[in-house]
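Run PilT/PilU family type 4a pilus ATPase through structure prediction, thanks.
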Amino acid sequence: MTPHTEIFNDLLKLAVDSGVSDVVIKSNKPGYVRIAGKLKSVDMDPITGEEVKAFVEEHVPRVFRQAWEDNNQVDFAYAAEDVGRFRVNAFHQRGTPSIVFRHIKSRVPEFEELSLNGEPLLNLAKAKDGILLICGATGSGKSSTMAAMLNWINRHLDRHIVTIEDPIEYTFIDDKSVFQQREIGTDVPSFDLAIKAVLRQNPDIILIGEMRDRETFETAISAAETGHLVFSTMHAATVAQSLTRLFEFFPPEQLAQARRQIAGSLRGFICQKLIPTIEGEGRVPANEILAADATVKNLILEGKNDKIQGLLDAGTDSQSYSFNRDIMRLIKEGKISKADGIRYSPNPQALDMNLKGIFFN
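Sure, done. The structure for PilT/PilU family type 4a pilus ATPase is below.
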């Protein structure tokens, strides 16, 4: 092991042992870690720019080396011996290299330990086809929620599941289902090649790590229309924002066609954010869930997306509900404080009224 690799591995081991989610490296600074959402510096000597550069050049996969040299930024996976796996983003800032590591937990989580409201998520996971999108900001636990759903499928249903990930996060052990997990750069040179091949690989379920562009979404639509269930993630904070993002993939002259395609293929949205626990030692997920039933599909077809938030706020369907409804559940279960619930709510005034028993449907 080279000296610079040893420096990084020691820091990553300290991070994992401390329950850290992210490690931030800036040239000529000590390392920083993010734990329970808070960024803290590590008591260590500064890591030089030469050490950062040497680490990247030693460990970046061959297929990505040219991208690092040409673009001064690259994503790849790194496995530290006896420590764990990490998603790595290396980049330049002000002419010097930096790295951000995200710890990839090896054990797939269960619904119960994530404090998720399991029933509506399981109902979505049982779908035979369609597109299911898990949405939220970076670090909101999207991958953990999606992994918990796939793990339930693995234990209860016989499915052939093909994943396209950049990099692989959770690794699954085949139970009733069979997993084929393809990592960009290791198993296939590019995301585009993996997407083009996936429908020829006889999947029942396809996991696409991120819904990143129109071509990806159109592949997901084709898969949904031919009887496949597609899981993917998207960077959007709420159901309303998620729907807007989908329509942004299409030019204005194709919006009518887009409404038909989205209404026909969408299975649902799961939007997520993490809120500090009442003990202050961790975070729990709050969800906004939209199950795309006949009413929702008709609203999308008619271009009345603005009406969908009203359905979520009304909460008349136990399978679809707003963030405020789930935040209320977490407050009543004693998992988060009222103050944090209101602070993280997208509509704090309405939540305050709801907690007093006042609802406007």
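The mean pLDDT is 91.
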